[in-house]
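[Q] Does anyone have a clean structure-token version of this?
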Amino acid sequence: MSDLNEVEQSEAEESVINMFDEENEAPLTPSEEDRLKEVKESKILSRLEELRERVLAIKAAIEEDNFIEIFIKPIRGNIKSIKETLETVEKTRDLAMLQGQLSAYRRMLHFPDTAVDQMSTEIDNIKRDMPLFYTGNDLVKRCSRISFDETLYKIIIE
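[A] Here you go.
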């Protein structure tokens, strides 16, 4: 039986592609490196612009006069109601449902903060991965000045 195992193992090893057996690729030429850098920067800027536009759209929505009345107050009311119900609920299924609803409402309440955090994470990645690029880029500077104030429930652009 051990011979059979050895044969199967050797066949399996042969069928696996070993990345170290392949020849190394030729290094990029200076023009290819420049083009690669341009493509990377273009992708980063388009992603950052997309995140910035999302944050600005959310900012416009949450600054509408009736937004707090229409969206925030009902969610906060539901959160309060669910918390009170959770104190008296006895059935495990009902308890799980209420906890799930509570979690969903909390996420709904914090969507502006999530969008701003996502953009901030992208900026931090740019600063870490491309330190020379971000220092001279206006879009990165504008995006890094955006924050969310939870107490005022406003996106602030400094």
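[Q] Thanks! Anything notable?
[A] The first helix runs from residue 2 to 15.
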